[in-house]
Amino acid sequence: MIRVKNGDALAFSILMDRYKQAVVNLVVYTVGDNIDSEDIAQHVFIRVYRNAATYEVRSKFTTWLFTIAKNLALNEIRRRKRHPIDSLDVVEQEEDYTKTKQYPDTKTVAPDDSMMNEEMQKCLKAALEGLPERQRLSLLMFQEQGLSYEEISEILEISLASTKSLIFRARDTLKKTLKEYLSSESAT
Description:
The protein is an all-alpha fold and 188 residues long. 76% of the residues lie in helices and 0% in strands. The longest helix is centred in the C-terminal third of the chain and has 28 residues.
């Protein structure tokens, strides 16, 4: 990032290549869909480039980067709450999906297992979306991005104890939610 600050365009390209997927993943998990995630990730890197001259090495670069990503993702969530709209693209994609037959790869996973995995993924996604915003963000940064408690507390601008508490509560809620789901599945 210091090279980017000094005007090195190649260094910026390297940063984008290295961190783009991590930023997209964080945005997808925060916003809850893939539709705008690439655009938001691009805006993150535009902000990084525009603010390169003011970048100061106070903590890890990823902390600064994920703070920008978190803020833009939360702004998108707030924007959607203020201006909810239904996208025609989503409707078209859903219609196309229902018309297209999908065949599972039976060589690697048995159909029953595949359906169970898909169902579990849907349940997990719904459980994650049901978590309060800060719990979801802190858990995803810890689990998916591999950030430390200290980095997460810096990104979320909360105490270390609060960060640990958020992650604990998020895990506890997910365990309870998924336990109820699994016990209801085994009962049927």
